[in-house]
Design a protein that fits this description.
Oligomer: heterodimer
CATH class of chain A: Alpha Beta
Number of domains of chain A: 1
Low-confidence stretches of chain A: none
Largest sheet of chain B: none
Helix content of chain A: 25-40%
Order of helices and strands of chain B: HHHHHHHHHHHHHHH
Order of helices and strands of chain A: EEEHEEHEHHHHHEHEHEEHH
Radius of gyration of chain B: 28 Å
Largest interface: A-B, 34 and 25 residues
Number of domains of chain B: 2
Largest sheet of chain A: 10 strands, mixed
Radius of gyration of chain A: 18 Å
Distance between the termini of chain B: 33 Å
Mean pLDDT of chain A: 88
Structural class of chain B: mainly alpha
Helix content of chain B: over 70%
CATH architecture of the largest domain in chain B: Orthogonal Bundle
Mean pLDDT of chain B: 88
Chain lengths: ~260, ~350
């Protein structure tokens, strides 16, 4: 069910402002692609354009093509709501719904869309998703307790469970570990390794070691200067990017000699 | 606290870090002294007002004492503290005085008869506020039924759809203007509106509800708007990212998260309009009998009942005036119960396990 993504000549605008310019990238299915780069270079914007989440901000629009298995996400007859059902997202800060229990949070994708299902079916989804997110053992006895009572790392895994419960084709992760401690981070990194078997994963990270640990290919974004749009500088297999990058800017950034 | 700073070779750091201070009991002692003087002044013929002024002058000695010993910064702090506490005390005086006189004069009127009898065919003693109680509850509930949907949907539009657009900012401006409408004007508006349909001299309960809605809608819009603003954007994004359409995100994520605050705001808005007199005087009028029909005839309400019992007490006037105090007390109790209810609701409905 995992899908590959082809992006060609994508420009992303906020109103008149060109935020990201001319991105061409191919994201393979069942692999982890990491986006690295300095703050403000448009990696998150680009990530959000992959499931049309950036449109939540008024005036945001794109031109160019994003093909998911040959389907253009920005074709005029595409419904962003349906796109987001197929391409899930995990955010920087854990954001479980405070009014819902742990189980309800996992089922939020179904429940909020008023999908009818049997109790047994719902229980299966909760257990499967929580197992996939590596949270089942910790919460199986308190599924009815509020999701916001969990620790930060557990909340983030709950959000991952919520995202995989709707069985998306692609999972986008926007700095999923930046608010977490090293132990929760390593749990989530292990999780990404496992999820890779079923999903296409795209992850934005500020942590270079994390990109090196979890990803199969790495993309380096940068901006030419203040007020200039962000650009994709280099894309390659992670090993090559971290040992022998082609672009001097990539090398400088990866070695910490930046700016 | 056993470590002490050793004098550093360059200078006397220890002295630089310390400062003269009033003894810690000083504020309490001055406050106690002021209290004693106020009470003593009251009973020794000075009267309450002079007693309180004298006590305040004594309290004002604290900043003076402080400026002599502690220096300017701490004295300013103590002066401002004194001013803030005085302002609070000043604000509480009318509240306490109203409570005391309403409870003192109204409590003896309360009885089973008072709550279960109307004023129909009652002259002199006896009778009750049943008709006014029914009227107040009916008219206010109808006002809430009209204003809550309008107010809530306006707030949803302003926060979720309008944002900073031209329509939204003009609505915000108009809501602000509406907040300032005098209640008598709201009453005249409702009267003029109903005259169009029913002719001169129309009196009906629902007209009172319309007048109260005019006063209530801006309060509901404002409080709901503030509450919806407090819902973190991350929750909306989380919902969108699951492929949930906007209207479901609003109805199933945003509203439940803000529910406690919204219900509290609505309850307080009801408490705010339940005591309105002027508009009801114009459009709902006054009667001595029970009227359950909002759409026909005059309808008594507690504030109007209080007003007319005081203004046309009849002969002898005492029982009527006592009933007026009783009705005022009942109104006060209803408002307090509503406030209490709002607190309970916000306690039980707010998302649990948070922070």
């Amino acid at each position: 069910m995992a899908k590959s993504i082809e992006v060609s000549d994508l420009n992303i605008y906020y109103g008149e402002f060109l935020a990201v310019e001319g991105v061409n990238i191919s994201i393979p299915a069942r692999a982890v692609t990491a986006f690295i780069g300095p703050s403000g270079c448009g990696k998150s914007t680009f990530l959000r354009s992959l499931n049309r989440m950036h449109e939540v901000i008024k005036g945001a629009h794109v031109n160019g093509k994003v093909l998911v298995d040959g389907e253009d996400l920005y074709a005029p007859d595409m419904d962003p709501v349906n796109v987001r059902r197929k391409i899930g997202m995990v955010f920087q800060r854990p954001n479980p719904f405070p009014t819902m229990s742990i189980a309800e949070n996992v089922l939020a994708g179904q429940r909020l869309n008023s999908k009818r299902m049997k109790k047994s079916e719902a229980d299966d989804i909760v257990e499967r998703s929580l197992r996939q997110a590596g949270l089942w053992a910790e919460v199986k006895d308190r599924l009815e307790r509020p999701g916001s009572g969990l620790s930060g790392g557990q909340q983030q895994r709950l959000c991952i469970a919520r995202a995989v419960a709707v069985e998306p084709e692609v999972l986008l992760m926007d700095e999923p570990c930046s608010a977490l401690d090293p132990i929760s981070t390593s749990v989530i990194e292990d999780l990404i390794h496992e999820l890779k078997n079923d999903y296409t994963i795209v992850i934005v990270t500020h942590n270079m070691q994390q990109a090196a640990r979890v990803s199969d290919q790495t993309a380096f974004f940068n901006l030419a200067g203040v007020g200039q749009p962000g650009k994709l500088v280099e894309l390659g297999p992670t090993e090559k990017m971290f040992s022998n990058p082609e672009d001097p800017a990539t090398e400088a950034y990866i070695q910490g000699r930046f700016g | 606290m056993t470590t002490t700073l050793k004098p550093s070779p360059q200078g006397d750091l220890s002295a630089d870090l310390r400062g003269a201070q009033l003894p810690s009991w000083a504020p309490k002692a001055i406050a106690a002294l002021a209290g004693v003087v106020a009470v003593a002044g009251w009973f020794t013929g000075l009267g309450p007002v002079r007693g309180i002024i004298l006590a305040w002058l004594i309290a004002a000695c604290l900043p003076l004492w402080s400026v002599m010993i502690e220096g300017k910064r701490k004295a300013t702090d103590r002066l401002v503290t004194l001013l803030v506490v005085s302002a609070f005390g000043l604000a509480v005086i009318p509240l306490v005085s109203i409570l005391a006189s309403v409870i003192g004069k109204g409590a003896q009127a309360l009885s089973a008869e008072f709550f279960t009898y109307s004023m129909r065919n009652v002259v002199g003693e006896g009778g009750g506020i049943y008709h006014a109680l029914v009227g107040t509850l009916l008219i206010t509930s109808a006002a809430a039924v009209i204003s809550v949907p309008i107010g809530l949907f306006t707030a949803i539009y302003l926060i979720e759809y309008g944002e900073d657009g031209r329509l939204a900012s003009s609505i915000r401006f108009l809501v602000d203007v509406m907040t300032g409408i005098p209640s008598i004007v709201a009453g005249l508006f409702a009267y003029a509106l109903f005259v169009i349909f029913f002719g001169e001299g129309v009196r009906m309960g629902i007209g009172g509800s319309v007048a109260l809605s005019v006063l209530m809608i801006p309060v509901v819009v404002r409080s709901c708007e503030e509450m919806l603003k407090l819902v973190p954007n991350e929750l909306r994004e989380a919902s969108y990212a699951l492929g949930v359409p906007k209207w479901r995100t609003i109805s199933k994520v945003v509203l439940p998260t803000a529910l406690a605050g919204i219900v509290t705001g609505i309850t307080l808005a009801i408490a705010r309009v339940i005591g309105e007199t002027a508009p009801l005087l114009i459009i709902a009028g006054m009667t001595d009998s029970v009227n359950f029909n909002l759409s026909e005839g005059r309808m008594a309400t507690l504030p109007v009942f209080t007003y007319s019992s005081l203004m046309q007490p009849g002969v002898p006037p005492e029982p009527s005036i006592e009933r007026a105090w009783g009705a005022a007390l009942v109104l006060l109790i209803i408002v307090m119960v509503l406030n209490l209810l709002a607190r309970l609701v916000s306690h039980y409905f707010s998302p649990k396990g948070e922070r």
